[in-house]
Amino acid sequence: MKVYDFVGAPNPKKLRVYLAEKGITIPCQQVNIVTGENRNAEFLKKNPLGGLPVLELDDGSHLTESLAIIEYLEDLHPTPPMIGTTPLERARVRELERICELGVLSSVAQIFQNTHPFMAGRFKQSPDAADNGRTRLANTLKVLDATIGGSRKFVAGSRPTIADCTLLAGLEFAEFAQVPLDPAFKNVTRWYAGFKERPSAQA
Length: 203
Ligand SMILES: N[C@@H](CCC(=O)N[C@@H](CS)C(=O)NCC(=O)O)C(=O)O
What we know:
The chain is built from 8 helices and 4 strands. By secondary structure, it is of the alpha+beta class. Strands 2-1-3-4 form a 4-stranded mixed sheet, covered by helices on one side. Helix 1 packs parallel to helix 3 (66-76) and helix 6 (127-148) crosses helix 8.
């Protein structure tokens, strides 16, 4: 197997944090999205949508979509469990992961695409779309702050899960996009400081 990766982008980061938490080692090859290497004909054969990460399987086929890659690896390596063990636990973890992805990471992406000079040449930018992203981000962080509360060590409870991987990637991306986490979300802030201490956060 091989991972096509780009250090500096959130979806590849989510996968690297997951791999580090699981103790799985897969060779990584960097594909530069800043220079557009992910849009050349060679790479588009691996992922016609051009996005990273991509997992290359031993038969030469490719799996795209970070969450599909993570769930595939989780099925191959169920221990330690990062999507829970009972049906309800698994549903709760996935629920929180989706909230972190769609409400945090995607909202930050929307803000980034609509405000950052790097995106200006590639994207029709709209201040209203950026504002909508900020609203969705704040609404989601409010819910996550209440869910994590004063005592949870991890997003879904007492063990790290894929929800932590996605939230870490989303909040690091938020710093890069210049919409850093508002410290008023004190439980998310405590979680973020704690998770950043884990070796996987450096992946
Ligand atoms: N939904 C996809 C998103 C993939 C994606 O858009 N990745 C970004 C990096 S976070 C990318 O490659 N952007 C460059 C581009 O699309 O040209 C996933 O979760 O893997």
